[in-house]
Write a structure and sequence with these properties.
three-stranded antiparallel sheet; seven-stranded parallel sheet; single chain; 6 helices; 27% helix; alpha/beta
Amino acid sequence: AAHHFVEDDDILFLEAGTTVAAMTKYLHQGNLTVVTNGVETIYSTLPRLAELTVMSCGGILRDKAHTFVGPQAERFFQEMRARTFFLGATGLAFPEGVTDPSPFEIQVKRAMAASAERTILLLDSSKFGMRSLLPIIPLGEISVLVTDENAPVEYVTQLRDMGIDVHLATTEA
């Protein structure tokens, strides 16, 4: 995802999930701005802080996820603009779409998606067919899905039929 969908001078929203935070070590483009609500995502950028501009919202810090949520975080992202929002989730199922268990997280993710030109979903194959409490955003708002080669073929086909650009990442030996 970092190699194919990030360019020099990009402004990126990175939500706070572990999958999205893991991509920060692959951000080698120049003059990037990373904007997040996640403490772990901020922490993952520290080795490259000299090359990145890192911004974070304020808000209520959740103990379990180490994320900033609430009205202050939502307003922060409503006022910002980014080219790409990298989104993670706990599940993807039909007809629900992309789901998450925390209404507080979902509100911030929705604000990020609304303020970005495109949304790229990073989701490993174990999350297909999983349902969580609430949908995050409609599947039609996902521009690209990056998943692994074990993603169920029927899901990949249906998502591509919906116009979502699905990329299967291969595992390096």
